[in-house]
Design a protein that fits this description.
This protein is of the alpha/beta class. The protein is about 25% helix and about 40% strand. It is built from two helices and 14 strands. A hairpin with a 2-residue loop joins strand 2 and strand 3. The longest helix has about 35 residues.
Amino acid sequence: MKEPLLFSAFSSLARSASFTSTSQGLSRSVSRLSRTAAVFAVSSGFVAAGFAGAGFAGAGVANAAPVTCVSPPSANQILVDGNASCGATSAEGSRSTATAADSGTAVSVAETGGTSNTYATGFGTALGASRAGGTSYAGAIGGGIAHSWADAGSTTIAIAGWGSGATAEAAGVDCVGPLSLALNLASGQFCILGS
């Protein structure tokens, strides 16, 4: 089976020579991290281009005014305007922000020092949750479903476009559909384009 072009380009990145098993392990880790960062950068470009294309193609044609829910100052804020809806709740020392427009639904929950940010538009659904100093980001457009859960100081990102879904959490990442991206910065796990 022929290796996909995207991965064959990054597998040829040079690996530095090492003289001890410790430095060899470190060298391999740095090389893997470099390849992961390069793949993520290229993948992010593909997802961004997909979102832009969906916007130009008319994804999310409903005209609900944007709504933004923020907690604090409110312990639990829920707003609905037309077909757009958001909800944000957080415990003391935490912060949640949820923004929705054009029939989107965004929900953010945070506790014990966590931060959660979600954005949904065009019939998308974005769900974010965090605790124990974690930071979660979820974005959905054009009917996509994004779910991001961060815990214990980790950062997770889930982005889903038209007809796609993305999940990023401590247990792993999952991407379904061509406009999906999920990343857990603590573990280095990521997926893109339904892979």
